[in-house]
Every structure is written in structure tokens, then in C-alpha cells.
User: What shape does this take?
Amino acid sequence: MPKITYVHQNGARTVLDVPVGTSVMRGAILNGVDGIVAECGGEMMCATCHVYVEEDQLSRTPTQSDDEKAMLEFTASERRPNSRLSCQLVVTPELDGLVVYLPETQV
Amino acid sequence: MPAPVVAIVGTGQAGFQAAASLRQDGFAGRIAMIGDEPVLPYQRPPLSKSYLARESGLDELWLRPETFYTQHQIDLLAGEIVTEIDRTERQLRLASGSALSWDHLILATGARFRPLAVPGAELDGVLPLRTLADADILRERLDQARDVVVVGAGFIGLEFASVAIAHGAAVHIIEVTQHPMGRVVSATISKFFCEAHRRWGAEVSLGTGVTRVLGAGGRVSGVETTDGRHLPADLVLICIGVIPNAELAGEAGLAVDNGIVVDEYLATEDAAIFAIGDCANFPTPFAIGRIRLESVQNAVDQGRCVAANIAGKPAPHDKVPWFWSDQGDLKLQIAGITAGHDAAVLRGDPDSGHFSVFCYRGGRLIGVESVNQAADHVVARRLLAGEPKLKLEQAADLSYDLRAHARSLPAR
Assistant: This one.
């Protein structure tokens, strides 16, 4: 099962096995990772599952839809070039080893 | 002094959010959540969308796993019924016979489906869609359903209809007014969605009600409409709105008027009792007077607001309302409350499948309805958080840069 690493604000790392087909957001929620809020449940109506993807892994992540780009304007923490909504990062074998950084705040 | 106790009646999205936010805000006392559904707190929106369509499962429905509640020391009493609020003793009486003392009480009791008051409504196959249990029954019934009648063309009815059509059922939507979703959207959006459902293969009868439900051997076989037609049906969905669960509050002497009456801090006239989510009737700058909203945004923002108030960081509830609905390949997103607009203007061409309706009252933008046009929705939420200063002509002009307009306004 692909491993996804969530890096908390204090630098602590949580490594989770997230099944293929499950989003990085859902993986965090199901395992009680604080720092992902996911208010709308993955509908791209909020931006509370914001993460920063490890820069050199960006090319492995799925392309951003226009809807995701639009909603990223709503992040509570600074939007950066490596900002993603983790509900849109659906885990595939290629995403094994993905590292995402949790922002300072989601709300 | 012992640590204070917060009791939350209701384990839906609002109750869950209040509990989670209390802990996040540093509340150290006891938190007890009591709900009549015997399951973990879950999201309701997918029940008429992806969950109903079997595109998502139970794991994706839970707001948090069971461990979240133990980790955060939230006592979850799921499957328990509150029978009385004793304001003098500051206690809840429970159906199991026990009592629960509280210092702060949050009523997040939600709403229940409004039954159809016609003969035959009790027949097998006449079903509501409100709870997980309802959705589980509908999932099974949809597998066998051939002729589906949807009574009421609100969000839930239309979402259900689009899933049923995709399932291969023949669907007939009947709506007593002339406007599907007419209580909450402009005439343009109403008409657009009505036509979309017809294009997808549903029959839509507007200005039509149900006089009785027909059946044989205890099972539904059709409905009789106000214009005298008999429509065949082996499944009838009743979705003609909800009734706020305000009885407990009313019996405790609290004011009830289309929901539990609260102030801008979401407190009832008893400063220790709050109401949030679908059951709360509150004042808002986004509408004329008081409203009651049934939405995730409202539940979440009010849950946060009440938690902050109890945790000693009081602030009024003043967040921009937003809503969404998925029907077929159309995503409707609404920012603000457009009911009561006196002018509306199109941005984009409905025939392109991507457009928005900007709604005004007294020359001021009050809400925006977007179809497959998330960029407009996002800008609208920003604009409505302050004074939008967007002229109607600017909204209608596709060459006018809305994002630049939003950036030019004072930051919030």
C-alpha cells in the first residue's frame, strides 16, 4: 500500500498507508491526523484540506483542475506554487512516498 | 470549582463541529454529545449524491473515526434520546432513565423530513431521504425500481432524481410550484435545471401536487396528481422540505419560531443555552430579518462560533452563507442568499454550460449562483464578505476582471 507522509507544523511526521483510490485528505481524516479539516468532505467547496506538496514531487501529482485552482484562492494559510487540496490527491502507486506539509492553519 | 460541562444535543455536522472546535479552542471541561442515531457523526450531503449512487461508501461518510472522540475526550452517546431539558436543575433527562448535568447546552437537533399528508403516504415504497438509514433503504430500493416519482423539486429531490435516472429508472418529478428549487434560486437557475432534468430523461410536472398515493397489497403502485393523472410508481420519494426539531426547546419554555430563536451569538434567551445548525433561527446581515439555513456551511460556521463563545472568545456569527448541489454533470454553487433579489444579471452563456447569475437587491450584490463556474463562486464569496461594490453592468461584462475587482477591495 502506498505510504504518504504528513509533516506537521512542529516538524513531526506521520506516515500512513493509504489505499490506492483514497485521497490524501481521506487518509488523514480516517487516521485522525490533526491539521486537515475537510469541512466540505472533498467537494471542492472549501479549502480546509490544504497541503504543500514536497517541491520535487510535484510532477508526480495529478494535474490541477480549474475548480481546484479557483478554490485554492480560499486557503487560510499562504497559497504557494506547491499548494494543493489534498482531497484532489487521489492515491495511486506512483504517489507512494509522497510527502505533504500541513499548513499553519486551515480556517 | 469542578470543570464545566458542555452538553450537545445532536450528533450531526453542527454538533460535531461544536465539539471539535471546543477542544481546538482549549476547552478543558467535559463534552458530551447525545444523538438519536446509533452511529458515528456523519456527513449528510453525500446521502443524496455519491453515497446514494454507490460511488462512495461508509468510510467516506464518517466525519471522523471513532478514535477521534476518545482521543479528544468527547463522550459520544449515540442512540440515546433526550426527553426533556430541565433549565432549573440544568439537566437533560434521557430516555434510558438517566440524567446529564450541564453548564452550557448546545442544541444541534437538526430537522426531520416533512411527511406528505395525503391518503396512502404510509404505503411501502413511499420513502424519505434524510438520514443514513433512509439512504441505505433507498440504495436497495433503487436497484429494483423501474418507475420513480419524486415529490418536491428541491435540492434533495433533484439530486435524487439525477441518481435514479443514471440508475436506469423512469423518473417523474412533480413540484407544486412553477419553479424547481424556487425557494432558494433565481428563476434563471430554476429553469435551467428544470430543462436539464428533462434533457436527461425525467418528466417534470410543475404546478402539480399529489392528492393520494395509490397502492395494492400494502405496496405503492402510483400517485394521483392534482390534475387527475395516475402516475405509475414502485418508488415514491417524499422531499417537500423539513421541520426543525425545536420541540425540546419549546417545551423548556424557549422561544420557537421556524426553529429555535437565537441572537447573533447563537444564544437563546437563556444565556447558557445555544442553538446551531438546521434547528436554529438566527439574525443575519445576508438576508432581511431572521433565517434558518440547512447547509454544511451554516452547521460548521455556527459550530465554530458557539465553541468560541463558550471558550471565552465571543464573536457574532457573520459568515457568508454558501451551498452546493450536484445534479448529473452540473455543479451548482451559491454564495450569499439570493432569495428576495430585485434584479439579476447573467455572466456567461447558459448554453455553454458554464455561467453565473449575479443577484442584486436595492443595487447591492446579495448573492451569486454559479453553474460549473467555480471561479465566479470563489470571487463571490470574497466580495460578499465585505461591501462588494460590484455594479450590475460590471458583473454582466465578461471582459471585466472580477478577481482584480476583489483584490482592489479592502482586505478582510
Q: What stands out?
A: Chain A has two helices and five strands.
